[in-house]
Design goal:
CATH superfamily of the largest domain: Response regulator
Strand order of the largest sheet: 2-1-3-4-7-6-5
CATH class of the largest domain: Alpha Beta
Number of helices: 19
Strand content: 15-25%
Number of domains: 4
CATH architecture of the largest domain: 3-Layer(aba) Sandwich
Radius of gyration: 31 Å
Helix content: 40-55%
């Protein structure tokens, strides 16, 4: 894929869906400024836009010349207050694109507190926001201050023992060199702290992350006797603690999931809920071009482009797709009738099922457009035979046997499992109880709470008790099994990839158990209770209550596969053949 092709796909996924832009800048004219008669007063009188009409006009025109043209609104930021967490007017959350002046404090052009507060608020939303920070302040300072404002302090980088060891050695050296600690701290600057944080707190910062020079630090460390790499590592971590302490007022108090930022080139910041690009007021007029350049430097992989396109497609054709999905009134009437007739215990489950089916209908209407887009991206990449695409996009080298194996194992776990539903027991739920892993293999229709009539004598007097079948999953250790033999499943439990089998040896019968879930298998904080039978001290069958914790769930088709294997095992016919002895084999 050429750079131009990739840029085109970026625009299609992130830029073309934009419909409006909100500019928050205390130097831009608002409609209120235009409508007031006479000379401007108060905050409006301090605005400088009248002296810079051409530049502002070019910025606005670039948005109107976009394809499609963007609706532009302007907010001068004068009512954006400051508190523990800056509160922003609700309409700021809903804008497709936000152009944000970094310096919203006219009395202190270097103060970006309000802008940082707005970005913090946007990064706490439930939807993805695009932001361009537009400022005439030094761009490196703006970038650093915004990253600092989104970082929560690490706290203790060294252990107490390590810190004591470093401070004792420094105290001895400072008897003759009293300014050493302050001088050494100058060699670990803000840029070193950011590089350290952006590399998962690794030191030395990996070369691939384009770290700042540490030559000055190494020289200073050697002066005090910190010569070896381990010693310099301890001193560096100690100085990074001091640097973090000095940055204290600038740092945030919240962790923003997925927070990363550019290591070199065009500056950008990204979290799971937003993307920030930067533009210099003194030079640039086309802010959309700056945004595209930052997105290009970020380099989202095809999978993220696909999801961005899906999000845009839902927004673009959501209403007609919704109408298409809901055109069969008889189906909708039956669904709603079932919801109305369900009692309180059953309603939640049926509501969720109805929502899932409605969502499936909607996505079936919008997915063809996403599929076409994905095919074009893949076709463009297939034309580029020189690039290792998986290494470029994902950092995975399939020529490395260990990386290839890990990718295969992660893939197998991903496709056979799903995020567990935590309403009530379902087919494929994987649970841990009594230090063993089990999977529920009762059909889903027999697991819905409230569906069994209380007057039914199918299970006798068992109101509130839900019989189900569980099969033990045997861990097989290393993931060197043959997944295509149809004997194994792969799960990620506690962050670790694990493989399981219904039986350890080919031909062995699964270890199954009839269990009895209490409260009809409803979950409480991801846990449920059941009873099982065991022999008591008198060799009589007696029930034992057990607490189980949900640790995963299989995709339904994989659970069905295990159900079929279990059914085959339980329905096999025992024949009277006998096996040859070892001598007879000869």
């Amino acid at each position: 894929m050429t750079e131009e092709e990739y840029r085109g796909f970026l625009k299609e996924a992130f830029i073309h869906p934009l419909r409006s832009v909100l500019i928050v800048d205390d130097d831009y004219p608002t409609f209120e400024d235009m409508l007031v008669e006479g000379e401007p007063k108060g905050a409006a009188a301090k605005k400088t836009w009248r002296k810079d009409r051409e530049r502002i006009g070019q910025v606005l025109q670039a948005f109107r010349d976009a394809e499609p043209p963007l609706i532009v609104d302007i907010h001068d930021g004068h009512n954006v207050g400051q508190s523990d967490e800056t509160k922003v007017a609700k309409h700021l959350h809903q804008s497709d694109l936000l152009i944000l002046d970094f310096s919203l404090n006219r009395n202190d052009p270097e103060d970006g507190t309000k802008a940082i507060g707005i970005v913090r608020t946007l990064f706490s939303n439930d939807h993805f926001n695009l932001v361009v920070v537009h400022s005439s302040t030094d761009q490196t300072t703006v970038f650093n201050d915004l990253v600092f404002g989104l970082l929560k302090p690490i706290g203790e980088i060294l252990s107490d023992e390590e810190r004591t060891g470093v401070t004792v050695r420094l105290a001895e050296y400072e008897d003759d060199h009293p300014t050493y600690r302050a001088d050494a701290l100058k060699t670990i600057g803000n840029e070193h702290y950011l590089a350290f944080r952006n590399s998962d707190a690794k030191w030395p910062v990996p070369a691939k992350n384009n770290p700042p020079s540490v030559g000055g630090f190494e020289q200073k460390a050697a002066e005090a006797g910190f010569v070896t790499k381990p010693d310099q590592f301890l001193l560096a971590k100690y100085l990074l603690e001091l640097r973090e302490r000095a940055l204290g007022p600038k740092l945030g108090s919240k962790v923003y999931p997925g927070l990363v930022w550019s290591k070199n080139g065009t500056a950008w910041i990204r979290s799971d809920l937003g993307f920030v690009a930067f533009s210099d007021k003194r030079q640039n007029r086309d802010l959309l071009a700056d945004l595209v350049q930052a997105l290009e430097n970020w380099g989202p992989p095809p999978s993220r482009l696909f999801l961005a396109k899906l999000r845009a497609q839902v927004d673009r054709v959501g209403v007609p797709a919704e109408s298409k999905a809901l055109e069969n009134l008889h189906v909708l009437a039956r669904w709603y009738s079932e919801l109305l007739d369900a009692d309180d215990a059953e309603r939640d489950s049926r509501v969720q099922d109805a929502v899932d089916r409605h969502a499936d209908l909607l996505f079936r209407q919008v997915s063809p457009g996403v599929g076409t887009f994905a095919s074009r991206v893949i076709a463009a990449d297939k034309m580029d035979t020189e690039r290792d695409h998986c290494l470029h996009y994902f950092g995975v080298d399939f020529k490395d046997a260990a990386q290839a194996a890990l990718a295969t194992d992660e893939y197998n776990a991903f496709i056979c499992s799903r995020t567990p539903s935590l309403r009530h027991l379902e087919t494929g739920h994987v649970f841990e109880a009594e230090d063993r892993i089990w999977v529920c293999l009762t059909p889903i229709c027999d697991l819905v709470p409230g569906r069994r009539k209380k007057s039914s004598d199918r299970f006798g007097k068992m109101d509130g008790i839900l019989p189900f079948m569980a099969v033990r999953l045997h861990p097989i250790g290393a993931l060197k099994s043959k997944p295509t033999t149809n004997r194994y499943i792969y799960l990620k439990l506690g962050g670790q990839l694990k493989a399981f089998a219904l039986a350890l040896k080919e031909g062995e019968s699964p270890h199954w158990f009839n269990l009895y879930a209490l409260n009809e298998g409803r979950f409480e904080s991801g846990e449920f209770s059941y009873r099982r039978l065991e022999l008591n001290a008198h060799n009589d069958l007696a029930p034992k209550k057990v607490r189980a914790k949900i640790v995963g769930q299989l995709q339904y088709e994989y659970a069905l596969n295990l159900m079929q294997r279990l059914g085959f095992s339980m329905s096999r016919v025992g024949l009277d053949f006998i096996k040859r002895s070892a001598d007879e084999e000869e």
